[in-house]
Amino acid sequence: MKIEPFKVELWMNEHEDKAIYNTGETCVDSISMDELFEIAELDKTKTLNELAQKRLTYGHIFGNPRFKKGIASLYQTINEEEITTTHGAIGANHLVLYSLVEPEDEVVAVLPTYQQLYSIPASFQATVKEHILSPENNFLPDVAELRKLVTSKTKLIIINNPNNPSGSLMDQKMLEEIINIAEKAGAYILSDETYRGLTQDETDSPSIVDLYDKGISVSSMSKVWSLAGLRLGWIATKDKTALEQCLLHRDHNTISCGMLDEELAAIALTNKDKLLARSQRIVRKNLKILDEWVAKEPHISYVKPQAGTVTLLYYDFDRSSRELCLDLINNHGLLFTPGDCFGFESCVRIGYGCSTEELIAGLNKFSEYLATI
Q1: pLDDT surpassing 90 at residue 139
Q2: CA atoms 48, 51, 56, 60: torsion sign
Q3: Which of 4, 34, 278, 283 has the fewest CB atoms within 10 Å, counting from its CB?
Q4: Residue 310: how many other CB atoms lie within 10 Å
């Protein structure tokens, strides 16, 4: 099976360890086990002793019930039986696409987005139609144009909400318009909701599964919950056929997730309100800093993100995004992701969910660089 190289992952694999200023990170500032236990108000010694006594078996094949209860609490209409756990959101996306997409199928994907969402179905020889978002439309879908792409052959409409790399957020009205398109075609909607909940105000961030019976939500413990090291994600859907297919295919590539990982994730989601409040404080404070910085930099502009931890910074000088990012990381220790990883030029992706101190240091270093342009 041939597949396109995963440009973002190749870039991060090669350059992340060189970063002095890591403004390429996409997770909210990660926490340690010590910090997790402190937030959860647990006795560290007692908790670790309890974990140490557990036999290291496969654990719960379809997911720790306590963890799945925590996941279900993130939705309005989903119960534990409508969830399966996976190895990160990357595993969840792959499992959904691997389970549902056939060579003769048609898939409509919104771009820019996480590359696996369109490269994997293409590798299965499905017909992939791309709906390209634009800064002129605030990186939101043009529903009329999307409607033209969807036909009776469309098996799956793929969206990413909040969007990576732009930080745009589709509201419920727009989601309902997309659902109307999907219903007429009898299509599923796969929504990568990895950044869901990280809004810049108290705006609601609805899940596709709470609005559409053939909606499929994918998310993880990495971005919002600051626990990427657990490598845990999930699929949530009310559609029994889709879930059955995912479970059937899951036997071939997952079996179960890590028992201790799921125990820690269960602790986190039992305390989801505290963790979410922490993450929201970080991204809201940091975006204010980024917004003020952009306003002062004559070479930089952007569409202010509404949610998530990332956005695209556009620059006005003549240099490819890859050339710029290579110069920054190799000669200045500053990590961004080139826009060309997402099919866009004259821009770089910045992650602003890192510690505030690291963000400020990175922006100051970039300002020094821009002053020489």
Answers
A1: yes
A2: negative
A3: 34
A4: 24
Burial 36-66 (b: 16+ CB within 10 A, else e): bbebeebeeeebeeeeeeeeeeebbebbbeb
First vs last C-alpha separation in the chain: 44
| Closest by CA position to 216, among listed 92, 103, 131, 113 | 92
Among candidate residues 167, 267, 171, 270, the one with its CA nearest the CA of residue 223 = 167
Whole-number Å distance between alpha carbons of 232 and 335 = 25
pLDDT at 161 over 90: yes
Q: What is the DSSP string of 259-278?
A: HHHHHHHHHHHHTHHHHHHH
CB distance 307 to 195 below 8 Å: yes
CA-atom Rg of the chain in angstroms: 20
**Alpha-carbon span 332 to 344, nearest angstrom:** 23
Of 236, 4, 218, residue with least CA distance to 115: 4
Tokens, residue 95 = 């499992």
pLDDT digits (tens, 9 = 90+) for 210-229: 999 999 999 999 999 999 99
CB atoms within 10 A of CB 73: 14
> Six-digit token pair at 350?
């910045």
Q: What is the mean pLDDT of the chain?
A: 97
Q: Is the peptide bond before 338 cis (omega within 30 degrees of 0)?
A: no
Show the CA angle centred on residue 51, arms to residues 48 and 52, nearest 5°: 85
Helix (H) or strand (E) holding 339: none
